[in-house]
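User: quick one, sequence for these tokens?
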């Protein structure tokens, strides 16, 4: 049960992490950003207490934000710890990636240093792995994810809600969050500098040249990509100026960048996202083309800049590299939706794909007949798309708008319809659901061990995947149960597919020099709108057991 729930826990953690990371960029000032960092640890990472220690210009660290305890905030906020004491702390204990964990057995030597700290009374741990009240966990915020960049500050966390020391999944989430927090703090400082430069450009007419120089330096030496583009007119969106960071990010010289606009560089699938981004305060995450033809994920944030008080306006775009975060998100999402052993879609992903093809309204309803009739009347529909036998166009819909220009109750959903249930194949096609249960697998597992059983499951998954079309889905429900989704099949087609897959599974499977065999029982069901995913799978499961009982025992090939 725990293994089956792990993908859901991971997906929940990913969603919470994505939410608190997104909130980091909504703060309007550095102080708001620091408090948002502390609040995010409490709201999204499963700790009850967090403090953000920010590096000051003199190198010491000041407690800039506290979340989770009013008493801790009153005691610690605004207090300073020396850089030497902090470096001593970060060099002690255990290294968890970029994190530093100092267990209570080692941390007693830190009780009397000058770093502000807060401890709550509590009993010693009862079990190995429990969190001790004097355990310490620090998440340094560096400007690079490998922990080798400039140190901007340290997040101190305490009191995990589950009372346990963080597992590897929580450690990875905290590392990612610390790096995203460092980016948010850097960006907040950059935004503050940019805002001050913009105010000077608008209000200090006498110091215009000095303001432009300040803007130039902030633009040119910004750690993230920056671009100025034309706004309005025939050349709207054309890049006028780019900084070195953006040129390096895209692998293009500044002279070449001036020939493009962002619409020329954006991935074709993301052009809609770019067009929906508002000019004033708009933000979007999309992919931009590099010179070598590859694409990189970036975050675009726009603002409008006036050249002079009454002069033309330009679009200032801040381009932030989020490739690493997107890669982690995709990896985490894949782990949450796929079986760790076989790499196939797991039960949750199977149900999601199946549910996406189904709706609660069965084809043949009056509203569907109306939608089909209207579409055919307009010359764009196929009267066979919705098998509403016996219904004339508009039958039962008197009084509803029939004009082509009127509002049609058509939701653009292509209904999934099951083929006829009769004994003869009438040629209709549908979404076949093949439920596969291996015969003889338990005996292999019992005789030769889980290593051999896992190898058999991996090979069966490979054979099933090789036996279907590219657009079909092969998923593992768990144990020795698999499900195949194959669209566009008739009754005879589905039966032929089941025979082919069974024959593909039967040949011996060699594991560590030993040949073992399993058989397979298939149950075929049909998905159709008006059914739920659970109903479809239960139907296929029941038919599989009927087929398993009806087949002669001699026909099942076991190890």
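Assistant:
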């Amino acid at each position: 049960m725990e293994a089956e729930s792990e993908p859901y826990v991971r997906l929940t953690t990913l969603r919470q992490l994505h939410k608190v990371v997104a909130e980091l960029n909504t703060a309007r000032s550095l102080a708001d950003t620091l408090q948002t960092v502390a609040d995010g640890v409490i709201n999204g990472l499963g700790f009850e207490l967090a403090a953000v220690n920010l590096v000051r210009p003199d190198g010491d660290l000041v407690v800039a934000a506290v979340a989770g305890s009013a008493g801790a905030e009153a005691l610690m906020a605004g207090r300073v710890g020396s850089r030497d004491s902090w470096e001593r702390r970060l060099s002690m204990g255990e290294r968890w990636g970029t994190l530093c964990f100092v267990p209570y057995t080692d941390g007693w030597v830190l009780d009397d240093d000058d770093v502000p700290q807060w401890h709550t009374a509590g009993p010693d741990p009862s079990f190995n792995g429990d969190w001790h009240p004097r355990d310490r966990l620090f998440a340094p915020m560096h400007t690079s994810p490998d922990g080798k960049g400039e140190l901007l500050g340290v997040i101190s966390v305490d009191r995990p809600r589950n009372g346990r020391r963080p597992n590897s999944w929580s450690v990875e989430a905290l590392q990612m969050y610390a790096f995203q927090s460092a980016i948010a703090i850097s960006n907040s400082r950059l935004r503050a500098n940019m805002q001050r430069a913009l105010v000077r450009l608008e209000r200090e007419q006498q110091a215009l040249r000095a303001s432009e120089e300040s803007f130039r330096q902030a633009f040119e030496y910004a750690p993230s990509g920056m671009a100025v583009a034309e706004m309005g007119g025939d050349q709207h969106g054309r890049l006028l100026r780019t900084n070195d960071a953006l040129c390096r990010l895209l692998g293009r010289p500044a002279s070449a960048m001036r020939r493009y606009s962002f619409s020329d560089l954006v991935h074709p699938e993301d052009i809609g996202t770019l067009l929906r981004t508002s000019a004033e305060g708009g933000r979007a995450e999309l992919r931009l083309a590099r010179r070598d033809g590859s694409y990189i994920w970036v975050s675009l944030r726009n603002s409008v800049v006036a050249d002079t008080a009454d002069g033309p306006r330009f679009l200032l775009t801040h381009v932030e590299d989020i490739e690493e975060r997107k890669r982690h998100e995709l990896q985490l999402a894949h782990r949450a939706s796929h079986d760790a052993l076989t790499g196939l879609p797991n039960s949750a992903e199977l149900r999601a794909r199946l549910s996406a093809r189904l709706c609660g309204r069965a084809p043949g309803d009056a509203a569907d007949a109306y939608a089909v009739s209207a579409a055919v009347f307009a010359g764009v529909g196929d009267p066979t798309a919705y098998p509403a036998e016996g219904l004339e166009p508009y039958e039962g819909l008197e009084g509803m708008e029939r004009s082509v220009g009127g509002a049609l109750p058509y939701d653009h959903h292509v209904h999934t319809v099951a083929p006829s249930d009769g004994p003869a194949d009438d040629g209709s096609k549908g979404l076949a659901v093949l439920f596969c249960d291996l015969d003889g697998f338990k005996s292999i597992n019992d005789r030769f061990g889980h290593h051999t059983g896992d190898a058999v499951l991996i090979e069966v998954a490979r054979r099933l995947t090789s036996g279907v079309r590219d657009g079909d889905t092969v998923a593992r429900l768990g144990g020795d149960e698999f499900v195949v989704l194959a669209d566009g099949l008739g009754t005879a087609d589905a039966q032929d597919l089941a025979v082919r897959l069974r024959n593909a599974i039967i040949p011996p499977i060699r594991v560590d020099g030993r040949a073992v065999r399993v058989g397979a029982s298939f149950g075929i069901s049909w998905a159709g709108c008006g059914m739920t995913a659970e109903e479809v799978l239960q139907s296929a499961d029941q038919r599989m057991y009927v087929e398993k009982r009806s087949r002669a025992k001699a026909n099942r090939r076991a190890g």
